[in-house]
Amino acid sequence: MKSLKCQGTPFEVGFQHGQGAATEIQKALGFYESLFKRLTKLSWDEVCHEASKFLPFLQKDWPHYVDEMKGVSRGSGVPFEAILALNVRTEIAYGMFDDGCTALSWKVGSQSILAQNWDWQTEQAENLIRLQICRESKPSVDMITEAGIIGKIGLNSSGVGVCLNAIRAKGVSFDRLPCHLALRACLDSHSKTEATGVLQAAGVASSCHILIADPTGGVGVECSNVDIVELPANTGGIVIHTNHYVKDHPGVRECIDLPDSVTRLDHIEKLISNYQDGPTTKAVSEMLKDEQNYPVSICRAETEKSTTATLFCIIMKLDEKLATVTVGRPISSVEMLVLNPLA
Predict the structure, then answer these.
(1) 146-190: per-residue pLDDT in tens?
(2) Where do runs of H (alpha helix) occur along the chain?
């Protein structure tokens, strides 16, 4: 996996990202152009037009993210509208994507672990990058993202980490923060409390679940285009989530496209109950390798009918501000990385 370290102003950070991952960005655009056409029947010009509807809100309230995306555009030689479309891909598809998979937060004593298997179409695996962002005014960030997208899954130098579960539900609001930029806003925060406050204030533009944690533990944030509902940790310090709402969202029409989402949620809860001594990276690693209900298991596998599989597994030790990433299915990974936002 390509690794980039970017620093400076938002535009400079974006420029370094775009320049360093230009090839991967071009391939990611080709992947999503084809996917949008197949799922939404929109041409790429129509996709970019839809994406542009977010620009007035973003320019007004989040101009630094617009500057960073402009930097990605300049560095990669790709039109700004295309980079914006990548960053709001979830919203353009109106909840038609089902990436995200199984995530958990587990806090006992001084240990705070946040982890996830991220499942998506295998064609996009080659376009994943490790992106480190260093700035003076905000926490440093170390994350795994799709090339060209400025916010995704990882942690920062304050020990704040985020994971993502896609949820398929109708509705999008162009005056709220798009899902992937919401992830970045969390990673720009100094604490879990600050991150949840940012999301509650800004709102999130589409359906998703964002799991936020820091050394004090985790909280789930179920988002729709009209509301945000928090899921506090249970008495065991645990928050778990897959790809469906577990709280009520009045007026939101959900389409559970992955029936195995309910099965995975039940199964990960049972697996956690087997570990009475609290969280360890070894225990979490074993759970995320689980293949019960294969191929639509916690550790998902590609089949003749579906090209979706686990593309990486991340386990963050937020009390130590470190994360390990296994690239590929964790049961047969092809590469291992250590994320360290303090490095």
Answers:
(1) 999 999 999 999 999 999 999 989 899 999 999 999 999 999 999
(2) 10-20, 22-40, 44-52, 55-61, 63-76, 80-87, 89-92, 179-187, 192-202, 260-273, 281-288
